[in-house]
């Protein structure tokens, strides 16, 4: 028992509630939010170190033992994701201080932001499927509010679609939960894993796992990403960055968790299916990223492509590939948030999101340009950056397990990702400035460089210090490859 | 009893799906709430409709009803209540702001 | 058009108190019998909605000058802090405790920390429901 497990969730939760009391005093809200975000990074770091020292930490809420009670589990995989979430959340929050604007702040922007973090962190830490659903919903409801906050026409239009897609997928999620409970009689993930292993994964259970894959695939944008470009381009950059960095990754986390812990028996069906979906997602993502000449769209289709990459790592399911997927997931959360913050600053500076109307911005924003270049290289996985290690491991794993086709597709899509980012960089920063600068072009507040800089440093440090980060990732992969470790940790007390 | 409940859940799903595919926002919102009712009914049915005493201390009974599905359904109902009411407010705001409740016209331009 | 709702208004005046009393009963009985903060909160909110239906929102606001968002936040905070109170005794989050006390008038009574949590739920439910209904209702 360790109450530390639930602390990363409680800190933003208490903050969110307290912020409601201060909703008229914006300055107090900012200070409180910033302090809480920093505290949460420390708490999450403490959790990672605790898990490193003592193995998987569990907390039985109210002292009720699983499988009846609710249990929160922090294995290394979850703990690392929580830490990354806390970091990304803090950076986006600091970015929001400079860009979000007073009307949104007054309409409970900060409380919703912290509620979103609660949902995301809860999804990572929870040990049973139903609480996963509840945490998903906390996250989604906060995201509905964040996406529509401000109420421009475009936001209203896009949030209706976002809301509808998510309501349907939540309904399917509860359906899957109902079937799971009907067939297996439990919802605790460790217990589910034990019972599936005992009863054997027959056709019915495989079908159920595919239903869950569908639900999580909708959230993650695995194949079912058609809702993503519209809804992620509507909200302001700080919100879009949180969405890009965290929301889809929660779906990816859920897919990885379910298919490594519970439904890992029938890999010929499920994992091949995931592999095929991953290949289609990667291809479609990069095609979108190449085709559009719009900053939002290019970045958003790069999210889609990256989701395919992680799913490919899971599909291979060898130890190496899972290490790669974990590493890539951590990297992707950081770099996607970074790219969206940069993209937001770029669009604010240029006054438009269309590449055709940009050009020569390197004169006005030299720092922004070079940071964007670094982030683009990191996204693609050029060696000293953090993307390289993850991709290398996934590709090595894929080749070792004989997934030649999809490995080929993933390498090709990496190249095309590079092309799409270079296209963005060159069109925006090189060349001549357009004759008529769009009237909405403005200065970029210098404060935004702090969170952007912090994320860039982290992305580089994760790449250069991969040697140092690897033991943690390896420990996460241990529990992913051997479900017994997870089960023992949950059921021991 | 289970069969009846299954049929009812299936009908709710059918009607809900039909409504979601409609053009008008109001129908879509109603469709989503019907689907979530169907889901809750399904959850109740899948967990088994048992006849037993309430699972409380002091009830000396042979059989107890499983309390877990009820807790799940209650949670799920609360969530869908919140989401549905949010959807209605959003649909109303969108209708006032955009002047239409036709999904065809809410499609958005391809170039933005 | 002005409608005549004398019957509704005079009935509401009486019925609201009956509903509120019943909701308090439901809330308190929740520890051992069906009931609890959630249902009690919904019932109280129903009483307030009935008032809002019988009169109009401005009247309700002048009679009950409550910011329901703050009510929600208070409820959530109370629930979380009750849960976190178990940290002080080195117990898992949300552990609860109870004991029997002899109180004046009531005699031997069971007091449980779960009631505090439930009170938080009650406030949160009243706050959320009223926020939703008022924000839908006031815009026309």
UniProtKB/TrEMBL annotation, chain A:
Transmembrane segments: 6-22, 31-50, 70-96, 108-125, 131-150, 162-184, 204-228, 240-264, 270-292, 299-317, 337-355, 367-383, 403-426, 447-470
Chief place of localization: membrane
GO cellular component: plasma membrane
Membrane topology: Multi-pass membrane protein
A GO MF label: antiporter activity
Keyword rRNA-binding included in the entry's annotation: no
Family recorded in the similarity comment: Belongs to the CPA3 antiporters (TC 2.A.63) subunit D family.
Pfam families: Proton_antipo_M (PF00361)
GO biological process: ATP synthesis coupled electron transport
Superkingdom as given in the UniProt entry: Bacteria
Protein name, entry field: Na+/H+ antiporter subunit D
Domain NADH:quinone oxidoreductase/Mrp antiporter transmembrane: 128-415
Subcellular location: Cell membrane; Membrane
Protein keywords: Antiport, Cell membrane, Membrane, Transmembrane, Transmembrane helix, Transport
UniProtKB/TrEMBL annotation, chain B:
Classification via InterPro entries: CPA3_antiporter_subunitC (IPR050601), NUOK/Mnh_C1-like (IPR039428)
Location(s), subcellular: Cell membrane
Protein's UniProt keywords contain Transmembrane helix: yes
GO cellular component: plasma membrane
Keywords from the named record: Cell membrane, Membrane, Transmembrane, Transmembrane helix
Recorded topology in the membrane: Multi-pass membrane protein
Family: Belongs to the CPA3 antiporters (TC 2.A.63) subunit C family.
Name of the protein in its database record: Na(+)/H(+) antiporter subunit C
Species this protein is from: Paenibacillus sabuli
UniProtKB/TrEMBL annotation, chain C:
Membrane topology designation: Multi-pass membrane protein
Keywords: Cell membrane, Membrane, Transmembrane, Transmembrane helix
InterPro entries hit by this protein: CPA3_antiporter_subunitB (IPR050622), MnhB (IPR007182)
UniProt keyword Ubl conjugation, yes or no: no
GO cellular component, one term: plasma membrane
Pfam families per UniProt: MnhB
Transmembrane intervals: 12-30, 36-55, 67-89, 111-136
Compartments in which it is found: Cell membrane
Source organism, top-level taxon: Bacteria
PANTHER family: NA(+)/H(+) ANTIPORTER SUBUNIT B, NA(+)_H(+) ANTIPORTER SUBUNIT B
Family listed: Belongs to the CPA3 antiporters (TC 2.A.63) subunit B family.
Protein name: Na(+)/H(+) antiporter subunit B
Organism: Paenibacillus sabuli
């Amino acid at each position: 028992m360790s109450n530390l497990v639930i602390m990363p969730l409680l800190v933003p939760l208490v903050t969110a509630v307290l912020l409601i009391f201060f909703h008229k005093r914006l300055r107090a809200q900012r200070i409180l939010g910033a302090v809480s975000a920093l505290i949460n990074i420390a708490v999450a770091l403490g959790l990672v170190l605790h898990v490193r020292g003592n193995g998987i930490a569990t907390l039985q809420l109210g002292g009720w033992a699983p499988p009846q009670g609710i249990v929160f589990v922090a294995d290394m995989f979850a703990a690392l994701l929580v830490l990354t979430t806390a970091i990304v959340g803090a950076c986006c929050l600091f970015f929001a201080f400079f860009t979000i604007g007073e009307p949104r702040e007054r309409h409970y922007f900060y409380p919703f932001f912290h509620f979103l973090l609660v949902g995301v962190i809860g999804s990572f830490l929870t040990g049973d499927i139903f609480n996963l659903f509840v945490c998903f919903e906390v996250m989604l409801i906060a995201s509905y509010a964040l996406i529509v906050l401000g109420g421009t026409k475009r936001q209203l239009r896009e949030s209706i679609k976002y809301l509808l897609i998510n309501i349907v997928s939540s309904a399917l999620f509860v359906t899957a939960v109902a079937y799971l409970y009907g067939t297996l009689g439990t919802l605790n993930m460790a217990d589910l894993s034990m019972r599936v292993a005992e009863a054997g994964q027959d056709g019915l259970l495989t079908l159920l796992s595919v239903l869950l894959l569908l639900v999580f695939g909708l959230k993650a944008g695995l194949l079912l990403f058609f809702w993503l470009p519209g809804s992620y381009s509507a909200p302001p950059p700080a919100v879009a960055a949180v969405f890009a960095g965290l929301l889809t990754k929660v779906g990816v986390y859920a897919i990885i968790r379910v298919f490594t812990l519970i439904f890992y028996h029938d890999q010929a069906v499920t994992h091949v299916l995931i592999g095929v979906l991953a290949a289609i997602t990667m291809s479609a993502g990069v095609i979108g990223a190449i085709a559009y000449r719009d900053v939002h769209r290019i970045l958003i289709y790069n999210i889609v492509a990256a989701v395919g990459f992680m799913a490919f790592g899971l599909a291979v399911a060898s130890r190496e590939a899972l290490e790669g997927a974990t590493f890539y997931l951590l990297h992707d959360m950081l770099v996607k948030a970074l790219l969206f913050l940069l993209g937001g600053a770029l669009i604010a500076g240029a006054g438009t999101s269309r590449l055709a109307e940009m050009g020569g911005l390197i004169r006005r924003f030299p720092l922004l340009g070079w940071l964007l270049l670094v982030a683009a290289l990191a996204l693609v996985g050029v060696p000293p950056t953090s993307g390289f290690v993850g991709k290398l491991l996934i590709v090595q794993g894929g080749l070792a397990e004989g997934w030649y086709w999809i490995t080929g597709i993933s390498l090709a899509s990496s190249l095309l990702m590079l092309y799409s980012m270079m296209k963005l960089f060159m069109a925006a920063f090189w060349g001549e400035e357009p004759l008529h600068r769009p009237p909405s072009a403005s200065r970029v507040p210098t404060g935004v460089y702090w969170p952007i800089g912090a994320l860039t440093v982290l992305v580089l440090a994760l790449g250069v210090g991969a040697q140092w980060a690897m033991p943690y990732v390896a420990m996460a992969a241990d529990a992913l490859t051997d479900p017994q470790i997870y089960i023992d940790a949950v059921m021991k007390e | 009893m289970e069969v009846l409940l299954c049929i009812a859940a299936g009908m709710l799903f059918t009607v809900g799906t039909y409504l979601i595919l409609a053009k008008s926002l109001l129908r879509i919102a109603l469709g989503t709430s019907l689907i979530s009712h169907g889901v809750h009914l399904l959850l109740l049915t899948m967990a088994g409709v048992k006849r037993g005493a309430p699972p409380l201390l002091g009830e000396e009974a042979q059989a107890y009803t499983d309390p877990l599905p009820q807790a799940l359904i209650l949670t799920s109902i609360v969530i869908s209540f919140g989401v549905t009411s949010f959807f209605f407010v959003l649909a109303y705001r969108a209708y006032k702001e955009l002047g239409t409740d036709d999904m065809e016209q809410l499609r958005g331009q391809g170039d933005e | 058009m002005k409608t005549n709702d004398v019957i509704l208004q005079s009935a509401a005046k009486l019925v609201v108190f009956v509903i509120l009393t019943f909701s308090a009963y439901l809330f308190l009985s929740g520890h051992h019998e069906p009931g609890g903060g959630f249902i009690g909160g919904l019932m109280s909110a129903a009483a307030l909605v009935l008032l809002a239906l019988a009169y109009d929102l401005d009247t309700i606001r002048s009679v009950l000058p409550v910011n329901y968002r703050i009510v929600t936040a208070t409820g959530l905070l109370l629930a979380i802090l009750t849960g976190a109170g178990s940290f002080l005794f080195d117990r898992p989050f949300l552990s609860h405790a109870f004991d029997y006390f002899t109180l004046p008038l009531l005699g031997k009574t069971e007091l449980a920390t779960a009631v505090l949590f439930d009170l938080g739920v009650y406030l949160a439910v009243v706050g959320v429901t009223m926020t939703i209904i008022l924000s839908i209702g006031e815009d026309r």
